[in-house]
Amino acid sequence: MNKNDLDILKIALPAIVTNITVPLLGLIDSAIVGHMGAAAYIGAVAVGSMIFNLVYWVFGFLRMGTSGMTAQARGRRDLTEVVSLLERSATVSLTVAFLLILLQWPIGELMLEMIGPTSDVRPLAATYFYMVVWGAPASLGLFTLTGWFIGMQNTRLPMLVSMLQNVVNILVSLFLVYGLGMKIAGVALGTVIAQYAGLVTGVFLLWRYYRRLWRGRRLSLKTRLLPITPFLRVNRDIFLRTIFLVAVNLYFTAAGARQGAVVLAINTLLMQLYLLFSYFMDGFAYAGEALGGRYWGAGNKEAFSGIVRRLLGWGVGVTALFTIVYVLGGQPFLRLLTDEPMVVEASYRYVGWAWLVPVAGMLAFIWDGVFVGITQTRGMLQSSVIAALVFFACVYILMPRYGNHGLWIAMLMYLLMRGLVQTYLFCNRVAK
């Protein structure tokens, strides 16, 4: 194992631990509602969670842009800019969170109308949304802190924050649902409480380990905040790219919801397999952001190329491992998540598509990390546009004939095209 591998693992392993707790938390929520006695509860959490995923994904640049720009500033040893980037990102995060709370009713109603859940799912999903939206300041604030920590080559602190946050979420949700009988409201309130617990922990760790960066630095307001326009401009492509990701995922959920509560529940459970792989791979993507951005900012092209090669090698290995695990254990895994007979039986017809997720998605995850680190965001936008067009073309052609099978084929083609286009762009633009 060479130095690049050690550097990658130093960042990737804590990030993997952090990310694995996220889908595990989703699995716990799905398992809690999966044993409430109706598929509508599973669908409600799926719809409510998807709304927040879609809304927060739009503002994913608060994390990705912060990490890439911070890594490059650190590579240049520009500590003044490192400090200012955190403050600019935090300002944008809190502003956006305030607007989300202020506009929660039109946003919630619009999203529910677009997704179109069935009549038994919609009121439960609305209850979930209008409670969890009050956690927006904590969630977006953690976007900023996580991105900044990653840019500083420190994924241990986000790991600690995420572990605490998810333990709180699980324990509080279990108490509220089974102890107080709050059902869907208990799951939602547990999520909000955990989000603020995570933010408080993150701010404490920032003060504990990095307060020295602010000592003796009397930065003017102009230095701190006025360069926020270039900050937003750099992240414009990430924002637009995320719109296309949101469109694809929104349509995927909506198409499942229109096929009834059972199909929506099946797709929700299968997406947990997708999330397990994606959050695991994001650990290596974070290494690409931190190390790729650092070497790119320092102008060390040889070290940068070495990191990219090793990241791709790790991606191939992780893909092979997850494919084997999903083929051997996919069906037993689904039985752990729900005991609803109709959902369990019907899910077996579609589980094979989840086996192909690692192969289809590996390149997209690795390249996203590298492109974020070097702030080559135009390529991310271009790949997402092309992949989204392929997705909707596949849906139009395949879904009328093959139903939910056609929907899953479209999703796999979308993942594959993102990776292939980014590979082409890297070889012809960045590597030259």
Report what the structure shows.
With 432 residues, the chain is mainly alpha-helical. The protein is built from 19 helices and no strands. The protein has helices spanning 3-34, 39-58, 61-75, 79-102, 104-115, 122-132, 136-151, 156-179, 184-210, 221-224, 228-234, 236-257, 261-298, 301-337, 341-347, 351-355, 357-373, 377-402, 404-430. Helix 13 (261-298) packs parallel to helix 17. The two termini are 27 Å apart. The mean pLDDT is 83.
Task: Tell me the helix content.
Answer: over 70%
- What's the β-strand tally? 0
Class from helix and strand fractions: mainly alpha
Indicate the low-confidence ranges by residue numbers: none
**Percentage of β-strand residues:** under 5%
- Counted by DSSP, the helix tally is 19
Ordered list of secondary-structure elements with their pairings:
Blueprint: H1 3-34, H2 39-58, H3 61-75, H4 79-102, H5 104-115, H6 122-132, H7 136-151, H8 156-179, H9 184-210, H10 221-224, H11 228-234, H12 236-257, H13 261-298, H14 301-337, H15 341-347, H16 351-355, H17 357-373, H18 377-402, H19 404-430
Key terms:
432 residues, mainly alpha, 19 helices, globular
Quick overview of this protein structure:
The chain has helices at residues 3-34, 39-58, 61-75, 79-102, 104-115, 122-132, 136-151, 156-179, 184-210, 221-224, 228-234, 236-257, 261-298, 301-337, 341-347, 351-355, 357-373, 377-402, 404-430.
